[in-house]
Design a protein that fits this description.
The chain is an alpha/beta fold and about 500 residues long. Helix content is about 60%, strand content about 10%. The protein has three domains: about 5-75 and about 100-185, 3-Layer(aba) Sandwich (Rossmann fold), CATH 3.40.50.300; about 185-280, no CATH class; about 280-495, no CATH class. About 35% of the residues are buried.
């Protein structure tokens, strides 16, 4: 299955394992909570989905790459203890607490969360000395003498043998005690994630044209060559920073991330073209509604790859505007919630402190995405600024609660205006983009690609849920009709 379906399976399993009955006991006892084994190629996002599942379920996450551990760190160190059985005393070997089990308890202390996921990566690539320990772990949920605490679900991940020569096969006894989920790479699913993660538009535009270059594992005379989703994402981060500092990523730099020389060279060449197209076609001007006949004529005689690249650039810039609109809305909504509390309680300093404590609690628990972290910090900073304003204007006294609230409300109105400006900017750019697409391509394959990308992008979906765009609904309706027609034709073909 693809990684999106795997995430849903794990999410549902975690929810089921943590469901309690009326007596406060787990409906599925710990002994019957089979560990989940996620098997799939390297670099497709197995670790990321564990982070997402933990955040969704509001539980803690402890992650370990087991190949980085020795038997001593996983099991603990042996020591001798005297025990009496009957009338005779014996020397018995026991073990100190495993580093891994200890980390679980530390996470519980740090976050206050008593339930969580213990994620062990590369579990089938352990050394010969550690292999029996891993089998014991999967079968009995123990390391040495210590058991994984109740309420903690075990998820392990590994690579199939075709990707790693050091892989160890699990025996039937072990396989009969776990839930195995096999995952395959899938560009269409990754693309949904990519938009939300802010993957560089050049990468997304390139992969739309070269989908077969998304994931590659090959053995050649020169050794193992590969391209993974992890490689594309890490390269994306570098490209964005390079652009910010005025540097260029050449094919050698690209090859450090895409370890397949042919694909690395091809993408590096495309990256040059991407920046050239961006300059030649004047992307920012198009989204402002300014473009001439020369631009349209140039596209008319351009190659299909070039035309798709222009569509990709438009989507990339629109995505930035949709994201800005979304984040502005999230920020204002959260800020408004705290100000409602302030209206009731009447002490803004206390509200600010409460907001800071909530942020710190969520941060320690690992429940925040990067964007959520920045948003909550911005909310706390804004509340701090409001507190300073009230002090400077001497409005914090008890007899001035109404005046203080009105002053804060006036400041909040400025933030609400900024949100509306972000929404309007995205809407105007979208309208201009559709005007350009109609003039340049009409009702064509390029328009289908444009609308399809809007339907894939998380931020554009959120925007279009709340804001009208007549041309989007016009073309999307037609696209949905075409999809239904294709499905009917496929069904008829199968029946004949």
């Amino acid at each position: 299955m693809n990684i999106k379906r795997a995430k849903k399976e794990i999410q549902d399993s975690v929810t089921a394992y943590l469901k309690k009955d009326s007596y406060g006991e787990y409906m599925i006892p710990s002994i019957r909570q089979r560990p989940i084994l996620l098997m799939g190629p390297p670099g497709i996002g197995k670790t990321q989905i564990m982070e997402q599942v933990a955040r969704h379920c509001g539980i803690a996450l402890v992650s370990y790459t087991i190949t980085h551990h020795t038997r001593q760190s996983a099991v603990g160190l042996p020591f001798i203890r005297e025990k009496t059985y009957g009338e005779k005393t014996y020397s018995v070997t026991e073990y100190t607490m495993s580093e891994i089990i200890s980390s679980v308890y530390e996470k519980m202390e740090e976050t206050g969360l008593k339930e969580g996921i213990l994620f062990i990566d590369e579990i089938n690539c352990v050394s010969e000395t550690l292999a029996p320990t891993m089998l014991q772990f999967l079968q009995c949920k123990t390391f040495g003498n210590q058991k994984v605490p109740e309420g903690w679900i075990i998820v392990a991940a590994g690579n199939p043998p075709e990707y790693n020569k050091s892989v160890r096969e699990f025996d039937v006894v072990t396989l009969d005690r776990i839930r195995r989920i096999d995952v395959e790479e899938n560009y269409e699913v990754w693309r949904e994630y990519a938009y939300r993660a802010g993957i560089h538009p050049a990468i997304l535009s390139y992969l739309e044209i070269r989908k077969d270059c998304f994931y590659r594992m090959e053995t050649t005379v020169d050794g193992r060559t590969f391209v993974t989703a992890r490689g594309w994402e890490d390269l994306s981060e570098l490209l964005k920073v390079y652009e910010a500092i005025g540097k260029k990523a050449d094919r050698e730099v690209v090859h450090q991330y895409l370890q397949h020389w042919k694909i690395a060279k091809d993408f590096a060449n495309y990256l040059d073209l991407f920046h050239k197209y961006k300059k030649d076609y004047g992307l920012e001007k198009i989204l402002e509604g300014h473009y001439g006949k020369d631009t349209l004529d140039k596209l008319k005689f351009a190659s299909f790859d070039e035309r798709l690249s222009v569509v990709g650039m438009l989507i990339g810039k629109l995505s930035e505007l949709f994201q800005a609109s979304y984040l502005a809305d999230q920020y204002v909504t959260r800020l408004f919630g705290w100000l409602k509390k302030y209206k009731v309680q009447g002490n803004l300093a206390d509200i600010k402190e409460e907001a800071e404590k909530e942020y710190e609690k969520l941060r320690r628990a690992g429940q925040l995405t990067k964007e959520a972290d920045h948003m909550l910090r911005k909310v706390a900073d804004t509340l701090e600024r409001y507190v300073v304003i009230l002090k400077e204007e001497h409005l914090e006294q008890d007899g001035q609660k109404d005046e203080a609230f009105e002053r804060v409300r006036a400041e909040f109105a400025k933030e609400a205006d900024k949100r509306q400006q972000a929404v309007d900017a995205a809407g105007e750019a979208l309208d201009h983009a559709f005007d350009f697409m109609e003039d340049a391509f009409g009702d064509s394959q390029e328009m289908v690609c444009f609308v399809t990308e809007l339907n894939t992008n998380y931020y554009s979906i959120q925007y279009l849920k709340e804001n009208d765009c007549d041309k989007y609904f016009k073309y999307n309706k037609g696209l949905l009709f075409d999809e239904r027609r294709e499905k009917i034709l496929e069904e008829l073909e199968e029946m004949s």
